[in-house]
Amino acid sequence: MTLSKDQKALIISLSGPSSSGKTTLARLLRDLLPNTFILHEDDFYKPESELPIRAGHRDWDCPQAIDLPSLTRALQHIKSTGEFPPFVDSKEDQNTVGSCPASPTQINLAKAIIASSSPPPSSWPKDLKICLLDGFLLYSQQPEFRPILSQIDIKLFLLASEEKAIARRKARDGYVTLEGFWKDPEGYVEDVVWPNYVAQHSYLFEGGDVKGGKLDKEVLGREGIVAMSEDGEGEGEQGFGEVLVWAVGELVGKLEGLLGDRDV
């Protein structure tokens, strides 16, 4: 992939199960990378009254809950202008993510990786912004997602085991919504959140076995998705600080190629 000279923003997606650290990672990367802002998929939820019902609950975690045409329009605006869409009223930044789980040493290592990139950040095109697209549901194979996927330049995928994802989600206070505030009702995470994640992402795992956690490297390569493993080869779950360092390393490597080849 190459960047055209009229492309005003590079779009990097961070996806994975709910409570895998996507928003925390996005906020840290925003602070570490120059000319960077975040677009949250959660800011494109439909009104609560329009959400489908699953297991007796309003389902916030399925494709039908997201206004996909509006998200596509926002991404197109970002790519053509390099600016955050004026028609998006972000609610996601009102939600808390807790204290930073990366150590100062790990953050300094991430900074050092960025500083040592070639070309260095000081030489990156000033007219090219970086948009971090943060979302629990970005890599679905449903046809409605194709316009979104076509706008993404770099795809990162975070992992979390079922047990950890459920525990982290249950520890959250709740979420600011268009109508006010949502707190997961009893059983929602087990009956709605995790099953939806499995249904939309099983194609990324060997034999469709999400619980086994072994990602299909052939599928990842075909889809252009990069994930981290315990041995550094593309799959598995890690401490957040290690995920930060991994993500920065992956992004810098890809940015070096893209920016080095860009016709400016």
Question: Your description of this structure?
Answer:
- One of its GO terms (molecular function) is kinase activity.
- Keywords: Kinase, Transferase.
- It comes from Triangularia setosa.
- InterPro entries: P-loop_NTPase.
- The protein has 264 residues and is an alpha/beta fold.
- It has one domain: P-loop containing nucleotide triphosphate hydrolases (Rossmann fold, 3-Layer(aba) Sandwich), CATH 3.40.50.300.
- It is 35% helix and 13% strand.
- It contains eight helices and nine strands.
- It has a five-stranded parallel sheet with strand order 2-5-1-6-9, sandwiched between helices. Strands 3-4 form a two-stranded antiparallel ribbon.
- Helix 3 runs parallel beside helix 8.
- The longest helix is centred in the C-terminal third of the chain and has 22 residues.
- 34% of the residues are buried.
- About 3% of the residues have low confidence.
Which term fits the overall shape? globular
Work out the number of β strands: 9
What is the helix fraction of residues, given as a range? 25-40%
> What proportion strand?
5-15%
CATH class: Alpha Beta
Keywords: Kinase, Transferase
Organism: Triangularia setosa
Protein name: Nicotinamide riboside kinase
GO molecular function, one term: kinase activity
What would you say about this model in short?
With about 260 residues, this protein is α/β, with parallel strands linked by helices.
